[in-house]
Structure formats: structure tokens, C-alpha cells
# Entry
Amino acid sequence: MRAYNETWIENKNVVGQAERWHSRSLLTDEQLATVRKTYPVGFQTMNGFLEIGLFIFTIIATGGVFLLFVELLSIDDSSVFGLYCLIFGTGLGILNNVLIRRHKFYRNGVDNALVMATTALLVGGFNSQFLADSSLWLWCLVALPLLAAVVWYYGDTLVTFIALAVLYTFLFDLTLEASFGRTLLPFVGLAVSSGLFLATQRSRQRAYYDDAVSLTQWVALGMVLACGNYYVVRETNWLIVRSTLIRSGVLSPPEINLPWLFWLLTVGLPLVYLWQGFVRKNRMLIILGVLGVAGAVATIRYYVGILPLNVHLTLCGLVLISMAVGGIRYLRSPRYGFTDVPDEDSPDEFLVSSAVGTIAQTAAGTTGRDQPDDVKFGGGKFGGGGAGGGYS
Amino acid sequence: MSPDDLLNDLRQRSILNDEQRQRIAASERSRPFSLHWELRALLYAGILLLSSGLGLLVYDNFDHVGHGILLLIIAAACVVSFVFAWLNRPPWTTEQATSRSAFGAYALLLACLLFLTLEGYAQYQYNVFGTRYGLVTFVPAMLFLALAYRFDHKGVLSMALTALISWVGITVRPLNFYFKTNFFDQKVVFSAIGLALVIGAVALVLERQRIKSHFTLTHLTFAGNLLLVALLAGLFNFEGLLPWFMAGLAAGCWLADRYARQEQRNRAGSFLFLLMSAVYGYIGLTYLYFKYLHPSGNAVAGYVYFIVSGIVLIAYLLYQRRSVLHESI
# Structure
């Protein structure tokens, strides 16, 4: 049993898919109407801007209540404070459940804010209650199961992101405890990130976790690029040892172990991403591959560049423009399964079609569902449908 | 659920017949993968890099002999981009232009960015505008405004409005432009309010005349934010005029709220004005409460204020959702 109605979330996906087919004239109006009736979605329809506002004001009101009780009960002892956080957090979680049931919220700002507040209070309260002065990695280790439980229960993207950050912090901090930790650090990052990515690929995708899984994949693949990048590894290493080395007279980042390997990864990984991205038609890999190539070019310029920055920028700009122009001209007609024609994953097309739909609806005087509101600004999946991995 | 599973499901519920299911499945398989937005993003990044690289080139080579040639190259690039954009211009219409070339809009953007580089250089080197600093922003503002309407380009429109807003800040207080927050000066605040009202009024008139009415939202977003920020600045800084700014802020929020309810063309976008009304209004209200009403030393009253006001605004936003949706149906 999870926080939101799972059937509705699955139905939401079904209706979305049917709407895409409908916009490509593969389904008739009646069929779309039947799909909507057969797969009902009971959630509130809301607008992204309202959700932002609701999030802000929910946080303000919750903060007010929290501080009010601190003041009224004059809680100043830290152990009592931890307990208070735990009790208050639990209360908020229960309240959130009631609100989700009653108002049929689904990521509408209020519930997002309450999930955040509950998580923060529970994690903070637990740690201040039981682990007053312990090391960072132990703190993270205790927080992780709680965060994982919240992600399991709500599928919330923001908490997923925090959980990933805590996971990486835990592993990196623990690795640095070892004497050879500095050398091991990038490899731990690479191994864990690849492991995370493979795990999300293997697991059976449930609509409930679409956004959380997609976010995890973005983070994991991005971390693989970062942990393999020569500049990142060398500078991170410098950050860790700087204070001791400066005292012994070393003033610039020293060479790292296995430099050739990291140079290879800096250049090779983005190319592998691009290659795999084009083979599998995976938007996430293509975008990250392009960003990785940009990072590799910047890294190379940083260490072995001879051109001044202005010439470098001008040349990069010219290269990018000619690549884009060439690509656009080349893909005017579809080639090798790629095209320049925008599809329904494209954000602009989505807005245009929904605006047209709204006008048509008001003009025809039909009521339908709360159609005009279906465009979600904030909650959308970054990178679009290709990121979900289901439609390639 | 994968598209194939869904198709089977729809077939089983006899929403689809077999022929249609196969057609959709074939269409899913053969559909090409769109790189439209990735390529556009690449093009955009390239234009930004190129124009900032050229700007840096001019800046770094000021004292060198070769900078004349460099300037000539940039001017040539600017003219070429503009000519290209002009040759690929969309046909003039008061509606949203539908047929547009793939590169015309980007060439125009590049031309505008290069124009700014050239203009900055001309002012720095030859002091073209003398001490009339206002012209430095006013000229591109007017030029970009005209270009935005002719070429139906929202990006250039945003650049024009930004230039227009900084023009007000600069003209009123030429000496410390760019470096100081101008909002401590009454003249700046009133000019900003005036400009916001003018932009808003012009936008609404154009909307009524049906001239590029898809620009209205961009105009009003700029005007609304400028107006409400200026009113807040007035509220914070000029105690003597407090009642006026309070009334102004209330009116501004009411207008934004009103507009969001009435706007029909772009329902999703118009909710931005509800959010603006709520957030700016709340900042003003909170400021007034803590400055004038809050009993000093009483923390509880402050917390109660946050609880009550927060809940009231949540209720307001939830209520708005319902009433706006209700009106639109």
C-alpha cells in the first residue's frame, strides 16, 4: 500500500499514450473518450504555477506550526528536540495521508511540501536523538533506509534526489576513511553509479516510480561521466589533500594515479554514450554524451590548450553552429530512423497542441474533463519520454 | 505499461480492432526518433558561444593594431546574419507566423547579439552616444522591438523589453547605472511603475487589435514583475508614501488576479499571474505585519501569523483553481 492510488497513475500513463496516438490520428475521438472512461484518473488537475505557490505556502505554514510548538512547549534540550521532531514528523506524515486521500492530491505542491517536511524532520530527529556526535558516513548510513522508505512510499523525485546525494556522500566519506581511499574514490563512484544504472534497467518498471527511476538514471550516468573525468578527479583529489600538501610546499594539484586511464575515460565515455545513445535511440544517453564531449573539450583545453579563451569560444561556437545546421539540414527527411521533425516528446509542440485544444474546446462549448489544466510545468520528466526507456 | 502491452489491453477491451492495433504497432516501430530540440539547443549554445567569444576577442584586443579588421569581421557577420534572416523572414501577419524557415530566427538572434557587441564597442571607442547613456539601451530596445514584431520572434522581444527596462534605470540615474540597486531612488521607482503600466497597456491594446496577440503574455510577464517589484521597493523604502504604495500593491495584485481569471487564450500560462499576485502580495503583507503590527518580543504572534497567512494563501490558491476552472467551462 503506497501513498498514491497506483491504478490511477498507471491509467494516467495509458491516457497520455492514447492522447499521443490520438494526436497522430491513430485513434478516433470516440476511442479516446472510451479510453478516458475505461481508465479513469481521479487525481486533482492542477497547474504548475499554482503548485509552486502551494509548495511555498505549505512550507511556511508548516514551519510556523513547528516553531510555535517549540516556543509553547519551551523545548531547548537537544534530546527532547529530537524526539519532538520525530513526533511532529510522524504527525505531518499522517496529515499528508489524510489530505492526499481527501483532496486527491498527486504531486500538487501541498503533498510535495509535506513529504519534504516529514522526511527532513524524521531524518533530522532520528539523527539528533540517537547519533549526536558521530561521523558523517554513519549519519548518512542511518538516514538511507528512512529515505529509501519515503521514496518507496511516495515515489517523490525530490526525496529521490536527496537519497542519491546521501548515498554518494556515505560511500565517498566511508572510502576516505581508508588510507588508500583517495585513489579508490573515483573507482567507487564509477562502480556504484554503473551498478545503480544497471539496477534501474533490470528492475521491472512501474508507472509509480517512472520519475524516480528516470532521475536515478540521469544522476547515475552523470556521475559516471564526472568520476571518469580527468579534471574532476585531479581537482577533487587536490581539494582533499590541499591543506596537508600546501604545508609541505606543493602549491598546485599533483598528478593523480593512473592518469592515462582517466584521460581515456574522459574522452572515451562520452563517445560510448553517444554511440549507445544513437544505437538505442535513447535521449538521455545522447544528451549526456553531448555534455560529456563538451566537458572533455574543456578538460583538454585546461591542460594542453594553446588557444586563448576568446578564440577557443569563437571556434567552439562556430563548430556547434555548423554541426547543428548540418544536422538539421541532413535530417530534413528521416534518415537511419532519426528526424528533425518535432514529435510529441518535444515540449513546445506539447504546449502548442494543448493551447489549440483549449481554444477548440472553448469554441465548441464542450466541457469534457478539466482539460485546460493538463499541462504540468513543474512536475514534468526532464528529457521527455525517451528517458523512460519504454518507447524506444 | 509498454505500448505493446497497452495495445493488447485495448484490444482485449475491444476499444481497438485488430487492423488498428497492427497499424499503431507498426507506426510505433517505424516512427523516426526526433532530434529536433537537441539540434535547436546545440544551435542556440553555438550562437551564445560564438557571440561571447567574439565579444571577448574585441575586449581583449582593444589596444592592438588588428582590432579594426576584427571589428570589420564582426560587422560583416552581423550584416550577413541579418540579411540571411531577412531573406528567410516569415511573411508579415498580425497573427502568429506559421511558416518559418529553420534558421532565419537563429540568424536574427545572432545578428542582434553581434549588434550589441558592435554598439558597445562603438560607444567605448568613439563615444558615439556621448554622455547620453540612455540611448545605449534605448536604441537597441526600439530596434529589437521592431524586429521582434516583424520577424515574430519572442526571444528578441524579451531582449527588447530587458533593454527597455534598463533604459529607464539608466536614464533616470545615469551615474550609478549597473552598479547600484536603483530602487532606493523615488524617481526610478515611479519611472519603473510608469513603464510597466505603459508596456501593460500597450500589450492589452495590441491584444484587442489582434496584433501578434501571442506576444501579450511575454509583455505582461515583464510588465507585471516590474510593476510589483517596483511597488514592493516603494513600500520598503519610502515611508512617507506608505498608504499610496499599499494601495498600489493591492491594486497590482488585484489586477494580476483579475487578469489570470479572464485570460482565455493561454490558460496554463495565465496561472503565472495568480502566483505573482500571491507571492508579491504576501511579501508586502508580511513586511507590513512585522513592521507595524507585530508586538515586539512576542515570537508566538509571529508564528501564528505565518500559520494563519500560510493556510489562508493555500486556501486562496486551491479556491482559485476551482473558480478559474469553473469560469473557463
